[in-house]
Amino acid sequence: MATKKIDPAKKAGGATKKAASGKKASTGGKEKSLTELVSALAETTGITKAKAKEVLDAHAELLISELKETGSVQLAGIGKLKLGQRAERQGRNPSTGEAITIKASKTVKFSGGKRFKDRFQ
Q1: Looking at residue 12, what is its pLDDT?
Q2: pLDDT number for residue 102
Q3: What's the rounded Cα separation, in Å, for the pair 91 and 77?
Q4: What's the pLDDT band for 115 if we cut at 50, 70, 90?
Q5: Is the pTM of this model over 0.70?
Q6: Is position 26 within any domain?
Q7: Among 8, 92, 102, 115, who pairs with 77 as Cys (CB 3.0-4.6 Å)?
Q8: What is the pLDDT of residue 46?
Q9: What is the CATH number of the domain that holds 65?
Q10: Which residues lie closer than 8 Å to 85 by C-beta, 6 or more apart?
């Protein structure tokens, strides 16, 4: 019976991605799904999961509407969300190598605040 080799990064549960140098770089773990985030919020605050989901949905809607109205949202102690623009640019179809035009688009940019940045030092 053949034994299956297990990648140490996968065994530890950490997600990995290839860095520019070709080596694997840890991303710090798997992203939380909405369900996992709701469960964590409910457990941390002592509210029900239904209420926690309601709070997250309301918060997301408030952020979206504020970004649409003013173009930026300051989250005290966490950071700032800003609406940005990406200009039209030339790209290349990876399958065919054909030059293509990528249309202009809007994006949301995040810059971390002091308290937020300090947690990652």
Answers
A1: 42
A2: 94
A3: 38
A4: confident
A5: no
A6: no
A7: 115
A8: 93
A9: 4.10.520.10
A10: 104, 105, 106, 107
Query: In which residue are the tokens 């039209």 written?
Result: 88
Count of domains for the chain: 1
Q: What residues make up the domain containing 58?
A: 31-92+101-118
Q: What is the pLDDT of residues 10-42, one digit of tens each?
A: 444 444 444 444 444 445 578 889 899 999 999
Nearest to 71 by CA among 109, 14, 22, 33: 109
Tokens representing residue 84 in the block: 């940005």
* Per-residue burial over 12-46, b = 16 or more CB atoms within 10 Å of its CB, e = otherwise: eeeeeeeeeeeeeeeeeeeeeeeeeebeebbeeee
Instruction: Please report whether residue 20 resides in a domain.
Output: no
**Is residue 1, in this structure, part of any structural domain at all?**
no
Which spans in 7-48 are helix H? 8-11, 34-45
Average pLDDT value for residue range 85-94: 93
Residue type (1 letter), 80: K
